[in-house]
Amino acid sequence: MMRRKCKAGILLYALLMLAAFSFLLTFYLQRQVARERLVRAYQEQERAYAMAHLVKESALKKEGEVRLKGARGSYRYTEAGLEVEIHMEGHGNYSYRFRQAMPPSKESKESSSKQSQESFDGARSSTSKSSSSSQTSSSSQ
Q1: Cα(54)–Cα(40) distance, rounded to whole angstroms?
Q2: DSSP state letters, 97-132
Q3: Residue ranges of the domains in the chain?
Q4: Interatomic CA distance for residues 71 and 132, integer angstroms
Q5: What is the rounded CA–CA span in Å between residue 66 and residue 77?
């Protein structure tokens, strides 16, 4: 009888230790899984931010869309600055706002280049007129 009680006590103790060990192991594994999820979330967030910078650099119009590997970025210039939205395929959406003025449009660039070309041509024609007038005055003497 004593041996049965002794074996039952040892068995009960072993079950108690097994339960405690499995509880600690479960807690540890859940903590590791949560840590891995956080790391992946931070990596995805950093990837989206890098893509937002790529979209920012390629933003030439008032609004548009840029296709990237694994994501799509759309941008829009507002009074507050540049708003960029990154849509990650199968993951999530991220929004960023940059304090950046709208770049000059192509039309304004072309008109300013035409104005500078006209002023350059005007300066060239005025110098050629003055040199031709000095030649005529020297030939008349």
Answers
A1: 21
A2: EE--PPPPPHHHHHHHHHHHHHHHHHHHHHHHHHHH
A3: 2-114
A4: 64
A5: 14
Looking at the chain, the whole-number percentage of residues with pLDDT higher than 90 is 37
In angstroms, rounded to a whole number, what is the distance separating the alpha carbons of residues 84 and 76? 7
Contact (Cβ atoms closer than 8 angstroms) between residue 73 and residue 86: yes
Which pair of tokens denotes residue 125?
């024609």
Handedness of CA 113, 115, 116, 120 (dihedral sign): positive
pLDDT of residue 115 exceeding 90: no
Instruction: List, for residues 47-87, the tens digit of each pLDDT value.
Output: 999 999 998 888 888 888 988 888 899 999 888 888 999 99
- pTM for the whole structure: 0.57
